[in-house]
Amino acid sequence: QVQLVESGGGLVQAGGSLRLSCAASGNIFNLNAVGWYRQAPGKQRELVATITSGGFTNYADSVKGQFTISKLNAKNTVFLQMNSLKSDDTAVYYCNAEQIVAGFGAMDYWGKGTLVTVSS
């Protein structure tokens, strides 16, 4: 089992910045990738950014150049730096981890989410 705990959400004015953190614990071996997803009110959950074990990153077109995903392996933590925030970025942000389990394939784990509210 992998446990994911997000932190760093809150209320910020448009144009401001926030940094989200996702701390992973438990059986964190063979994590293939960790990512951030978000779900705005009345909308489906969508991918924001991912980072692989090798450090490769992927971003949704809507956040390219605005958000940066990074990780600190020594602390099993993944960050999402969010700059120039807009009201459209208001959502609950979830951390996701994909783990490769021998004989089972890929397993997904989710955190409980952290709320980001951008006021205009």
Chart the SSEs and their pairings.
Layout: E1 2-7, E2 10-13, E3 18-26, E4 31-39, E5 46-52, E6 57-59, E7 67-72, E8 77-82, E9 91-101, E10 105-110, E11 114-119
Parallel strand pairs: 2-11
Antiparallel strand pairs: 1-3, 3-8, 4-5, 4-9, 5-6, 7-8, 9-10, 9-11
Task: Give a verbal description of the structure.
By secondary structure, the protein is mainly β. It is built from no helices and eleven strands. Strands 2, 4, 5, 6, 9, 10 and 11 form a seven-stranded mixed β-sheet that branches. Strands 1-3-8-7 form a four-stranded antiparallel β-sheet, with no helix packed on it. Strand 7 and strand 8 form a beta hairpin. It is elongated, with a radius of gyration of 14 Å. The protein starts with a strand and ends with a strand.
> What is the typical, i.e. mean, pLDDT?
95
Major β-sheet profile: 7 strands, mixed
Number of helical segments?
Answer: 0
Give the tally of β-strands.
11
- What fraction of the residues are assigned to beta strands by DSSP? over 45%
> Which series of helices and strands comes N to C?
EEEEEEEEEEE
Shape designation: elongated
Segments where pLDDT lies below 50 for 5+ residues?
A: none
Separation of termini?
40 Å
Over all CA atoms, what is the radius of gyration?
Answer: 14 Å
Oligomer: single chain
User: Helix amount, in percent?
Assistant: under 10%
Give the helix/strand class. Answer: mainly beta
